[in-house]
Structures are given as structure tokens and as C-alpha cells.
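Protocol step 6 of 9: fold each sequence in the batch and record its C-alpha cells directly after the sequence line. For illustration, a two-sequence batch is reproduced in full.

Sequence one:
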Amino acid sequence: MDTGYKLYNYFVEYFFSKKNSVVGSSVGITVAGSTSNPGVWSYQFNNPSAITFDQYGYMYVLDYSNSRVQKWYPGASYGVTVAASAMYNPYGLKFDRQSNIVIADTYYHRVISFALICCKFQ
């Protein structure tokens, strides 16, 4: 059934579930993004399509329509753009073994990698 409405996602939510529960939670807490509207500001997303966490617990959100990766610190009210160039309509992301973030760039039909975590020089 086509109602003429489009569904959009502008935020990331965390859903709690009780230990050993068969039924999941029906209520979530917004942990990143704005629940009201899409946008390009650091507290907004426009169709976030993937999330991952680094070894320090920071959350990285792939913002599909803004073609960027936002890093969110725990409890932060806005994100920091850590990757935004040379990609269009990114869809998936993951950290590799060297702590680079690897992104599937769907428009350009390629996989790209960004070094986000610096290693300490000895």
C-alpha cells in the first residue's frame, strides 16, 4: 500500500531488555541525533545507515545522505565529523585490525579506508 509518505531515520536509539527476557524492549533512549528533523549540523543526521564502536567505546555513525562519519563521545549532545571527503552514499562501516575505519562507498562502487586512531611513536 502506497500512502505517499516516506519514512526517514534521523537518530540512533538504545533499547534496554531485561536479562533472560524473551520479549525485547518497546521503549528506547535517543543516544545520538535529533528526533525531529534531518540536517547537516553536528547534532543531526540524514539517514544514518551503520554504527560501530572503537576499542575505547566511542560510537561512530555513518550518515548516508550527508556522506560523513560522526564520532560520538558517551553522553555527548553532538558528534564530531571524522570522515567526510571522497565518498558519496556510504552504506557500511567497520574497523579493521589496524584501527582504520573501512567504508563501503556505494555510489563510486568501492571500499575506502581512513586512519582515525593515531599510533604513538616510539
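Sequence two, same batch, same settings:
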Amino acid sequence: MLTFSRTLSLLAATALIAGCAQTPPASQAAGAPVANTPAKPAPPLVGTIWKLKQFNGQPVTRTPPRQRDVTIVFNDGRVSGHSGCNQMMGAYGTNGSSTLTFSQFAGTMMACEKADMDLENQLLKSLGTVNGYRFDGQQLLLLKDGVAVARYEAVK
């Protein structure tokens, strides 16, 4: 009888220990690929065409061909693009990692629909207050005192 109870105790202890052993999830079983793909690096600030996706927390949608995309391109201290109604150009300064300022904005003077003119006026005024930037994946955020005022998406 003592042998039976000892055997039963050993079997119970073995089952308990085996049940507590860690086994990898099925997705990490031997031979299964592990999804550990590194994030795609952000495009460079300079030379990339950036399309406005969000302004002051609101999505920006355009209806081609009547409305052109609102874009911005940085190149050797100069900035250019389309501001909603007109072509724009100006200067920018950056430390290459987080600060960004705009100056000397100019643009063509074409008449457009009121909504496009309003967007352009608000955007240009807001760009004049930008003092920083950061990347969020493939997107560029223009910041005023750390708060995003515009979100651009890399086009190419």
C-alpha cells in the first residue's frame, strides 16, 4: 500500500511540474516565423514631397482635379509647395533633428474658392508659428511648442 501511495504522489508531482513548464505559443513553435520586422525608417525631411493630411487636428481632404493636394518640400534652406490655392515658397531653418522655423513666405496670387483660400491663409499663418518637428512613422508633424499643428504624409 505504501508503494502505491508513493507512486501516486510521484506521478502527481511529475504531472504538476510538467504542466508548469513553459512552452512557446504555436506562432513561435520551432520553424514558425517570428513577426519581428523592424519599423520602416522615416523618410528624410529634405527632398521628400510631403502632402498635408491633418491641420489643427482636422483631416484635410482634397477633391482632384478641382483641388490640388497641399504639399511642402524642403531643399537646402528653401521650402516650396502648394498651399491650398497658390504655389508657395520661402525659407526654413533647422538643427537637423527637432527645431524648425519658417520665414520669408511668398506665393502666387491666384483667386480660388473661399474654402481653399481660407485653408491657405490659416495654413500660412500657422506655418509662421512652427518651431519644431518630429516624425511619426512615415509622417511629418510640424509642431508649435510641442503640439502638432500639421501632419504631412510622405508622397515620394
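Proceed to step 7 once all outputs are recorded. Observation for sequence two: Residues 54 and 141 are 9 Å apart (CA to CA).
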